[in-house]
Specification:
Strand content: 15-25%
Number of strands: 14
Radius of gyration: 18 Å
Distance between the termini: 16 Å
Mean pLDDT: 95
Oligomer: single chain
Order of helices and strands: EHEHEEEHEEHHEHEHEEHEHEHEH
Shape: globular
Length: 283
């Protein structure tokens, strides 16, 4: 059955829970597999919910990494010169009223703007309260610019927002403070697309923005047929790109709904699952 899949010329890899392990590292086996794939002419592309500035150095320094699909597909970059070759962002008039409504609740908010991450200063002291790996908390501390009023900052500087990420504080009963209420608020705005990117969060972009669309645009830019692509992922924000790519690979640690739509389930992110997928389909 595996022999029926096409030759792979481009591999799009999610980061958190996929390419990266719990320590925010790329395993040796995966680094070696990527190096071999690049030697064989495969274009390897991070496809992440993170903004450009938050690509970990361990990823940016992998051999042959020249492009990145970021902010769930809202922005695609040529990495050597930080050139944005595609952006579909939310203008202030669209995103600020939603942010102002959310600012009334105790949640952690990040805005991804021009490839950088911005947060409310009131969230800074509570990052360690979030239910996520320590490596992710350190990443948030290290990569955010904090401002007193996020919506006002966006309005004053007339900034377009590639993506908003909302994280919720865990409660003793196992629920997450305000998550259900925020989901209801977001569902009342058809001009945006929202989903979960992991760790019980919610993420929203302009309506229609997906990693799959980002992959299609990048393939067009590079002259690669979409039928020559592989994508690996683990959460809701990966479903569209796994459906778009010729070969959609779910990690062993992926959500059940991701595995359900995948063509193949590889090993976990802790067990070099990306390397296994590359050896299976791209080498």
């Amino acid at each position: 059955m595996l022999q029926s899949f096409p030759l792979v010329r481009l591999a799009a890899l999610d980061l958190d829970g996929t390419l990266l392990n719990r320590n925010n590292e790329v395993t040796l086996a995966t680094r070696q597999a990527i190096a071999r794939a690049v030697e064989h002419g495969v274009v390897v592309v991070p496809a992440t919910g993170r903004p450009l500035a938050s690509l970990p150095p361990v990823v940016a320094k992998l051999p042959g990494i020249r492009y990145a699909i970021t902010s769930n597909g809202a922005a695609v970059y040529h990495l050597p010169d930080r050139l944005c070759i595609h952006e579909s962002a939310m203008e202030p008039a669209l995103v600020c009223p939603i942010i102002e409504e959310l600012q009334k609740k105790s949640i952690h908010m990040d805005a991804f703007i021009n490839g950088d991450g911005f947060s409310q200063r009131s969230c800074e002291g509570k990052i360690d309260c979030l239910d996520m790996p320590t490596s992710i908390k350190r990443y948030i501390h290290r990569t955010r610019t904090f401002t007193d009023d996020l919506a006002a900052y966006i309005r004053v500087h007339n900034l377009n927002v590639q993506k908003m990420t909302l994280n919720f504080y865990p409660q003793e009963d196992g629920t997450f403070l305000y998550r259900d209420e925020v989901m209801q608020i977001l569902s009342e705005h058809p001009e945006i697309t929202f989903l979960s990117g992991g760790y019980h969060n919610l993420e929203f972009t302009r309506a229609g923005v997906t990693k799959g669309n980002g992959l299609t645009l990048l393939c067009s830019h590079l002259g690669v047929d979409i039928e020559e692509t592989l994508a690996c992922g683990d959460t809701q924000n990966d479903i569209d790109i796994l459906k778009t790519a010729a070969i959609g690979v779910a990690m062993e640690n992926a959500l059940p709904e991701v595995k359900e739509i995948a063509d193949f389930v590889t090993r976990s992110n802790e067990n070099s699952g990306v390397a296994h997928a590359i050896h299976t389909f791209a080498l």
